[in-house]
């Protein structure tokens, strides 16, 4: 499957939940923008984009099962869900394993082990900060402590007028 086909499948999976759909599309757009500017190789770019589209796949289940979509719950439930979701996508095992890993760690800021993981963290933070109205101090703290890509730094400074 192409990124567009996976996007369409994830939109259908979301069953009309506009917040969830808008969220993952925005995360995907920022991740794609950062990755292209940072000149990722084609396979890493693909893995990142699919992970960005599917990173919150467990939110509906978590809201139903636990009454909330806490990040750690999403990570625990998301890995197996994304593996099943991508089982018919024509991807090789190592691509699915990496996406599963990224989805299963997208709220974990320690142990970031690759540029795809780093960019997913940055893109998701930008969208979460915007959606949830994070204060300037929290955004500056994230920028100074966790943002590693030059594009992520530039975007956060521009978006949040820092």
Can you put this structure into words, describing what you see?
This protein has 162 residues and is mainly alpha-helical. 72% of the residues lie in helices and 0% in strands. The protein has nine helices and no strands. The protein has helices at residues 3-13, 18-37, 42-54, 59-66, 71-85, 93-103, 115-132, 136-146, 150-159. The mean pLDDT is 97.
- Structural class of the secondary elements? mainly alpha
Q: What would CATH call the homologous superfamily? A: Hypothetical protein af1432
Major pleated sheet:
none
Number of domains: 1
Multimeric state: single chain
Residue windows where pLDDT falls under 50 for at least 5 positions: none
- The shape, in one word, is globular
Q: Strand fraction band?
A: under 5%
CATH class: Mainly Alpha
According to CATH, the fold-level topology is Hypothetical protein af1432
Number of strands: 0
Tell me which CATH architecture applies here: Orthogonal Bundle
Tell me the layout of helices and strands:
Blueprint lengths: L2 H11 L4 H20 L4 H13 L4 H8 L4 H15 L7 H11 L11 H18 L3 H11 L3 H10 L3
Helix pairs in contact: 1-3, 2-3, 2-7, 3-6, 3-7, 4-5, 5-6
Give a quick set of tags describing it.
globular, 9 helices, Hypothetical protein af1432
Question: Could you give a quick summary of the protein structure above?
Answer:
The protein has 162 residues and is an all-alpha fold.
């Amino acid at each position: 499957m192409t990124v567009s086909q996976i996007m369409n499948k994830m939109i259908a999976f979301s069953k009309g939940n506009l917040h969830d759909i808008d969220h993952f599309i925005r995360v995907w757009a920022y991740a794609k923008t950062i990755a292209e500017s940072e000149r990722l190789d084609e396979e890493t770019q693909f893995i990142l984009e699919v992970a960005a589209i599917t990173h919150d796949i467990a939110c509906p289940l978590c809201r139903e099962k636990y009454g909330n979509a806490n990040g750690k719950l999403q990570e625990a439930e998301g890995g197996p869900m994304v593996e099943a979701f991508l089982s018919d996508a024509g991807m090789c095992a190592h691509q699915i394993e990496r996406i599963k890993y990224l989805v299963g760690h997208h709220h974990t800021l320690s142990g970031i082990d690759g540029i795809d993981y780093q960019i997913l963290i940055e893109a998701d933070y930008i969208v979460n900060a915007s959606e949830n109205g994070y204060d300037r101090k929290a955004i500056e703290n994230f920028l100074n402590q966790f943002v590693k890509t030059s594009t992520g730094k530039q975007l956060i400074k521009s978006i949040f007028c820092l």
